[in-house]
C-alpha cells in the first residue's frame, strides 16, 4: 500500500507542476480540481481514498503556494488582490469539493 501511495503522490506532484506551467491561474485551477476529486473519492473504499485522495490529491493540491502568492501580493500592497485570491480560492475549493460529494453521494 505504501508503494501505491508514494506513486500516487509522485503522479499528483508531477501533474500539479505540469498544469501550473501551462494554464493561467494554474494553482487555483489545480486546487479546485483536486478539491472536486477529493469530494468524489470520499465515498470510495478507504484503500482507494488513501491512495488517490491522500496520495494523489495531497500532492496535487497546494495551499502553501496560494499562501505565498497572497503574501507576495500583500508585500506589493495589492491588498484587494490578496484578499480576492485567498477568499476566492477558499470559496472555489469548498464549492468544488461539495460538488464532488454531491455527485458521488448515495
Task: Count all strands and give the number.
Answer: 0
Rg value: 15 Å
Structural class: mainly alpha
How much beta, percentage-wise? under 5%
Q: In angstroms, what separates the terminal alpha carbons?
A: 27 Å
Order of helices and strands: HHHHH
Helicity level: over 70%
Q: Which geometry do the CA atoms define?
A: globular
Poorly predicted runs are none
Describe this structure in words.
The chain is 85% helix and 0% strand. The model has no long low-confidence stretch (mean pLDDT 94). It is mainly alpha-helical. The chain contains five helices and no strands. Na(+) binds at residues 58, 61.
Question: How is the secondary structure organized here?
Answer:
Blueprint: H1 2-22, H2 26-41, H3 46-60, H4 63-75, H5 79-103
Tags for this model:
106 residues; mainly alpha; 5 helices; 85% helix; 0% strand
Brief rundown of the structure:
By secondary structure, the protein is mostly helical.
Amino acid at each position: 500500500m505504501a508503494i501505491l501511495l508514494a506513486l500516487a503522490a509522485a503522479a499528483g506532484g508531477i501533474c500539479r507542476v505540469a498544469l501550473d506551467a501551462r494554464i493561467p491561474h494554474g494553482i487555483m485551477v489545480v486546487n479546485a480540481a483536486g478539491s472536486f476529486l477529493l469530494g468524489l473519492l470520499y465515498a470510495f473504499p478507504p484503500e482507494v481514498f488513501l491512495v488517490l485522495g491522500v496520495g494523489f490529491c495531497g500532492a496535487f493540491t497546494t495551499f502553501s503556494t496560494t499562501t505565498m502568492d497572497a503574501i507576495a501580493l500583500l508585500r506589493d500592497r495589492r491588498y484587494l488582490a490578496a484578499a480576492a485570491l485567498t477568499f476566492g480560492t477558499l470559496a472555489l475549493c469548498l464549492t468544488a469539493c461539495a460538488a464532488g460529494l454531491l455527485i458521488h453521494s448515495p
